[in-house]
Every structure is written in C-alpha cells, then in structure tokens.
Amino acid sequence: MTDYTRSEIHLCVNGQSHRLNVDNRRTLLDALREDTGRTGPKKGCDRGQCGACTVLLDGRRVVSCLTLAVAADGSDVTTIEGLAPDGELHPLQQAFVQLDGFQCGYCTPGQLCSAVGMLAEHAAGWPSAVTTDVSAEGPAPELDAEEVRERLSGNLCRCGAYPSIVRAVLETASRAEVTG
Amino acid sequence: MKEFSYQRPGQVREALALAADDGARFLGGGTNLVDLMKDGIETPTRLVDVRGLPLDGVRDAPDGGLVIGATTTNSDAAAHPEVRRRYPALSQAVLAGASGQLRNMATVGGNLLQRTRCGYFADRSQPCNKRSPGSGCSAIAGEHHNHAILGWSDHCVATHPSDMTVALIAFDAVVHYETLDGTHEIPLSEFYPPVGETPQRETMLPSGALITAVTLPGAAASPRSRYRKVRERASYAFANVSVAAALDVNEGVVQGARIALGGLASRPLRAHAAESALRGAPATADRFGVAADAELSAARPLRDNAYKVTLARNLIVAVLTELAHPAE
After folding, report:
1. End of a domain among A25, A52, A83?
2. Which tens digits make up the pLDDT trace of B157-167?
3. Which residues of chain B lie closer than 8 angstroms to A25, CB-CB?
C-alpha cells in the first residue's frame, strides 16, 4: 500500500544531488542535518524566530525550520558549507573572522547565509523598512548600519555581537562595490 | 505534528478538488501554518501546496490598478516597482512585517489568512474561544496589553497581526477567490466578519475556497501614502498600533483621505469616521487630532491596553502631518 505520508524528493545541496524518502512532516532543517549531513544550519528556536537555520533556497534566504522538506522538492539549497566549497572562506566569512563578527558562533551560519541573501536583495534594488523613500527609482540606498540592522533583524545573536556583525557586513559590501 | 499527505497541483481546479476533503489545508509559504502545526493548533490531514499554481506575480489591471497574484511572495510584492510607485504604503507595510527570510517565504494570499498571535490561542493548555469555541477567553482577564481596543466581544479580544492588510484596506483592495462553483470576489473591507459570538470564524471565505489574487483599484493609487508601525522592538515584532494613510491636500484644505488602523481590532480597520471628519477641513495638526478622536471615541480599552488609544491618536496625527508637510 502506498504510504501517502512520505514522499520521494530531490534536493541539490551545495551542488550535490540527494534523493531522499522523507516523512512529510520533516522540515528542510532536519533533512539537511540528519539526512544529508549538513550540520551547518543550526536549530535555535525551531519556530522561525531566531534565524539560526537560515539557508539559501533557490538563491533566496529562508528559515529552513518552517520549510517542509517535501515542499522544497526540486530546489537548490545552499548552506554555510556551500559558501566555502574548497575551504577558501567567502569574503563575508573572512570579514567575520577579521572583525570579530561572533562569539559562541551558534548563530553565525545563519547570520552569514542571511547576509549573503540580503546583499543580493540589496543589489537587486529592494527597499527596506528604514528606506526613506520606497518609491524612488534606481538602486537601493547605500547600505549603512541602520539598513544592515533592519535587513538582518531576522537573525538573533544571544552573545550580542551585533556591532561587529554590522561592521563585517558593511566592510564586505563596500569591498564588493569597489571590485564590482 | 500529526501525519499528513502532501500534493502540489499545477492547476487551480485540481487544487480545489484536492482541498474539498475535510482536513485539507492550502500551504503557501508555511510561515504561520507549519508553526501552528508544530504546536498541534492546526492539524491538517492533507496539505495542498499552492506554489505550483499559476498565481504568481504582479500585473497591471485594466483600470490602472494592479493585480497581485495570491502566491506572490511578500518580498516580491514589496519590491515591485509599480507597487512602490502607486501604492508606497503597501510596500512599506509589507516591509514592516516579519523578517527578510519570512517575507521571502510568505505569500500574499497566506498573509490574509494568518492567525492571531494572541498567546492564549497558541497555548493549548489555556481556554480560547477562537481555538476551542465555548471554552472561554483567557485574555480578557489575563495578559492582554497588546490586544484589541475596538470591536472586540466578550468572546475574544485578539488582534489581527497583518501589516499588509492594513495598507490593502486603505487602498480599497478586493480579494478574488475561486471555488468549485466558479470565481468570486469580495472587498477586503467585508472579508473579515466582526468577532461577535464566533471568533473561530475569521473570514467570509467558503470552506475549500482558494484566494487567487488581490486587486488594487487604479482610483486608489496614492503616490503620497505612508505606513507607520509602533512596536516593542525596532524591527521584527508585531504592531502595537499601525497606521496606513494617504492624504490629498489642495491649498491647505483636505480634499480626501484614506486612513486604516492595525493592531487595534480582530481585523484591519478602515477609519471612516476620521476620513469624514477630514474632508474639507484645513490640513492642520489640530484637525488631524479631531479626526483621530472621531474614530477612537468608540474605543473600549481593556484593563492594560488604554495606552493604545493615546498611541493611535498620536500616530494618526503624526502620519497625517508628515503627509501634509512632506518637507518637514
């Protein structure tokens, strides 16, 4: 008899193909950690409130704890492991190291994936809640501390490393603008 | 979480047929539904994923307005150039809600159907008439500092959590939905029934109906419009009070106003009394205060949320003043 409460799914995680048979109740976070061995995404609140489980789903940042694995069938997933595929740190990771963008490190994989997604959103011209004039045409306003804090407000850091996280993101953003 | 089957149909008719089953729920971004399933508040036996349906995207409507497809993500709606140009308060309202990650997941249709964040609704060990009709309301005598001051009943004092719907109702949005009988539409202002004795009945949608789009009339386009939200953190928190407003001023006299309020009732509220009080009045802070009072005179604060009356008044005056004098 067919079991309608399980599904065959395909995920491409950090460029690697995975065929999985999952309980429909399985979250993407649990599938990544338990079924594909990617333990970078962290289970903080498991309620979509802390951002520690943030991954890029088809290029956009999402919380994997409220994403059902079955609903992500056919998607490309990038976890923190995928930001440094050959052991060479992503520029954001380098900036976090150089500027002390963390203490205990538990929220860091989510902070980094969220920041990568956020920088892409900003580059695409998306406004934020602190953008003065959302109707202005052209590129989004240049990132400053207020914009970064607002755009990353979905990632909590219980150590309170926010000032250094903001500096690291701004440092990376300014270098990206210089080098294109 | 209880077990459930999962399907991702490609056509609306197919989705409606699948959802005809008792126990079926449509799944959009899942940011609210999956969370409630983890708590056993929602216990679907079948999830019908609507993100495979051709309901994504924003397009022009013949009347100069916009059609926002039901599965458009909050992010895409807020970032859309024509939403930002014609209805900036809608973009601001969406951006004021949740977090970047959640906005990338959450859909416009789902936003209309999100459930209250009343702590008692989410706590199965406590009575709650919305979750378990007839069991009582724990919030009336309990923790209710962020509950309703308008339109509540002895059965429920919870508020509607959406920011987006506050701006939508200010712009006379219409909800389009489909059932196995055909296509239908209902103004958003009539979409949420009064609480009355049935707080468990949250919308006028028939069982099994699927929201397909939200339309914004061209006549409501208001390049000068504004959404402001007061909350207990600078970001990523639900509203205590929010205001969406547009103001048309000519030579210091108000020609027309659109004002909607969030965080104050079981549904987003259009402030008709305030709008009437403003028509033909001088665009001054004093008159904005009079208009706010006209709306808020109906307020019945609970033991611990009278602050919302003052907060709403001040916020209405501040937003209208900002719209009347954009340079200040």
Report:
1. A83
2. 999 999 999 99
3. 1, 3-4
